[in-house]
Specification:
With about 260 residues, the protein is of the alpha+beta class. The chain has helices at about 75-80, 90-95, 145-155, 210-225, 240-245; strands at about 25-30, 30-35, 55-65, 80-90, 110-115, 130-135, 170-175, 180-185, 235-240, 255. The chain is built from 5 helices and 10 strands, in the order βββαβαββαββαβαβ.
Length: about 260
Amino acid sequence: MATLQMPKSPVPLDTIPISPDGGSGTTEMNGEPEKMPNEQIVTVFDDPEHFNVKHPLANNWTLWFTKPPSGKGDNWNELLKEVISFDSVEDFWGIYNNITSTSQLALKSDYHLFKTGVRPEWEDPQNKHGGKWAYQFKEKKAVDIDHAWLDVMLGAIGETLEDEDDGEVMGVVVNVRKGFYRIGLWTRTVGKPIPGGGEGSHAGGKGRSTEEGKAILMKIGKNFKKTLQLKDSEQVEFSGHTDSAHAGSTRAKAKFVA
């Protein structure tokens, strides 16, 4: 992987460079990068700043940010801001290296990384039948939250949190609170088929039994736990968005644990 160069101070989000300098040396031909005549291919793994070929991701992703509320009258839609979208390894690092690290965010801030076209909200049509795996780090000083959040983001965009045909992972989120950090992984379903199914062979649990759906969620939960490098005695919990909404909290009773 490219060497991380964290900024000394936060860079305004509207000035984030999508590609480092020197990233325009290719043309696109049928979706594949084409090397210019007499030009040597240089990837981000060869030179993290002056590369000329990008590595596409399997999906497009969008980074969102929730700024801290200024008072009780704040509207969620006003606090939630879409930051930027990307679809390559190089673009991810260009963004990551130029935003404020999680450990430096103000209290009540959140980062959300979701597949493009999916809003990080329970009410989004692609989320409303789903839920999330989550783990709460209660000892903030004992965890390297920047490393943990980076690993989870890489797991999401690298498609290692689920198998290719699972179609469950919608996005990941990190919450910064006074007494804890919390990282969550949102799924399309709660293990049960969605009424009417959905796009794709398995989207919405189409063609799966409830037992198969639960098994897939449990596998994702274990992958999530492994990515967070938790001990066997530590548990990640899964809850449905509907249950959380009814409970009036993100801490609804867990459906599953891993």
